[in-house]
Amino acid sequence: MTKSKWFAVDPGSTKSGVVEMSNKFIVEARIMENDALLSMLKELDSDCLVLYEDIFAYSNRLGEDVINTIKFIGVLEHEMRKCSVETKAFFRWQVKKFVFDQYRSVVVPRIELKIEKKNQKNNDGKDRRPSHVYVDDRIVVAAMKSEWSIPTPKPGKKSMYNLAKHSWQALAVATTYMNSL
Fold first, then answer.
1. Cβ distance 26 to 161 under 8 Å?
2. How confident is the model over 156-168, as pLDDT tens digits?
């Protein structure tokens, strides 16, 4: 059975992006200190679902921020199990692949510009083909604006639902989950 209330989280080393969803609608987005986020999530009942972006082993060097993010994810999982709150993790590559596959008309032109700007070529000298590996935070924002019909705010104004920074990625996690149902 699908839970009606979700909290999608893009974990960070000290702050995390959070989107609250109810019956598949965005309620609110925010950036929260990790301690405050854990306190809030501990108050949830078992009728809620916590979705989060997990970290997948990759070849990049592990810096202090990544290590602290991994530690926070472990604490998040542990605390949710103690509270009997269901969790579902999505790796970043899964979210990026979903965004690439579902929003090609938004994503591919941006990726082609990125490839052209960086002059990235295959061994045969032709431009590389667009793929999910080129999806970055800005491309995720563009895709989520398209999916949820969120206009770009005027300069100095906040985005609809208070979406900012990592809460856009949290929204992408929620959207990935919603489309998997």
1. yes
2. 999 999 999 999 9
